[in-house]
């Protein structure tokens, strides 16, 4: 191991102080599920590392109509929540039990493609990232947080400290397709949130987010527009799925080819919307 | 680089180790403390053979800097095994042929312990879900699932008496 | 590793070409760039620090301009080197007039050495193209803002 200093700050100000003192050469690690494999493999050779497990960022609290999730809250912590069943669905499909006890919600935003299933779900829920720097907090809608392949909006003296999720009524589901039934990276992940009209049957607005179909989780604007004003008829669903497949930018990696991913986007957007078109029941898996 | 001293609870006793910064719990348990039931498989978080319990919850020791668990309670299979005989979960694995080469077994046994502590009567789906992060190349998994069901049933029968 | 990309600039190609050769501009637009110095008319040396999930590192970079035909095209031969490994190769870009602005097309190939070589090369390609795209966007913005002053 190349590490000469491993810091475990006990507070956010202390963590920011360390970031300020050591700059962009300080490796920040939370659950360790992304960084430690790279370090163990000898691909990442950090000298100074800062772990965030003790910095007091692991709480989850509900304030009015919002859920404030600390950046180092674990995925297991998310599974204990009743407030947003769809977020539970997303977290439950990540890796295995031990990894979920370690991996953090904030860390999921930084997972290199094709990962980030919880991040995809958060994008569909209209979540915002809370970023803290020397000057204080700022909030960034998740869509603006990612700036490219493995790059994001954080300045070198800033930390992601939390995620805010609005609690909105509607219909929501998250579907992950992988090569295996469990403990598998995504071929494609689809997360949908629909806000319905007063009649409860017509879609007012839709948010469709895809994982593993772009450099980071992405919203599919044309696919969303295709649903507005519809009652999720098969034709509307087909149009939405086709738009998502055409507009996404999947990639080829060891898990799946671009060709296959694009086809699976169409299939799984279709399946997710078909589930949401059914009357709600425990069996429909339609956590709103 | 300066070493650091970390103390934590292992098998009911406090232990203290001196480590280079960011040494993993896996390396400490295997090479400094002789707990070789904690296996060294992929070091990527993919195989689960390094599974340990931290305050009763399963974690992957290959991804865990030992400094992160200072003051916490760590359980390995060595800590589960009584001075005489076998833990009921170990007995159940033996009776159900729940292992062949034995490499995945410590991880599976510890997961079983954590699962049954959370949920004394798990259904098959719940057992499968609990084991999803741990790979076995020998048994085809059914004997392991059997062993855990058996352990649960035996514990329930014992509790009912 | 093979790279290919295009970019549209609002500024005319004479300005784009000149900006690419200016150390001050390079320092401002290259992601993570901490230092750039022009050591001779065709050679630039610098340092880039990249912060990626799970890995941070500083890289010494050396780039030499070759086959320079302003404002049309140029080649860049270079080497990026750090603790995590090195990338050495050549990229060529062309600039064409496009509705008062500039259309750039670039192509490059390189070999990766050291720990970095253990990564899937497609991963490295996507990362490199993303960082280049970020730099080109920053350059476009800078030229557009300067032009309006």
Description:
The complex is a heterotrimer of chains A (288), B (161) and C (149). Chain A is α+β, with helices and mostly antiparallel strands and 288 residues long. In chain A, 32% of the residues lie in helices and 26% in strands. Chain A has three domains: 5-51, 2-Layer Sandwich (Uridine Diphospho-n-acetylenolpyruvylglucosamine Reductase, domain 2); 60-166, 2-Layer Sandwich (Uridine Diphospho-n-acetylenolpyruvylglucosamine Reductase, domain 3), CATH 3.30.465; 171-278, CO dehydrogenase flavoprotein, C-terminal domain (Enolase-like, domain 1, 2-Layer Sandwich). Chain A has helices at residues 12-22, 35-40, 75-79, 85-92, 97-102, 105-108, 117-124, 142-145, 221-225, 234-247, 258-277, and strands at 5-7, 26-29, 48-51, 60-63, 66-70, 128-133, 136-141, 146-148, 151-152, 159-166, 171-178, 186-196, 203-211, 218-219. The longest helix of chain A has 20 residues, at 258-277. The termini of chain A are far apart. The model of chain A has no long low-confidence stretch (mean pLDDT 94). Chain B is of the alpha+beta class and 161 residues long. Chain B folds into two domains: 4-78, Ubiquitin-like (UB roll) (Roll); 88-160, Orthogonal Bundle (DNA polymerase, domain 1). In chain B, 38% of the residues lie in helices and 16% in strands. In chain B, strands 2-1-5-3-4 form a five-stranded mixed β-sheet, with helices on both faces. The longest helix of chain B has 19 residues, at 142-160. The model of chain B has no long low-confidence stretch (mean pLDDT 96). By secondary structure, chain C is an alpha+beta fold. Chain C has helices at residues 13-20, 23-29, 121-147; strands at 2-9, 33-40, 43-52, 55-69, 73-82, 85-98, 101-113. In chain C, strand 6 and strand 7 (101-113) form a beta hairpin. The chains are: A alpha+beta (288), B alpha+beta (161), C alpha+beta (149). Chains in contact: A-B, A-C.
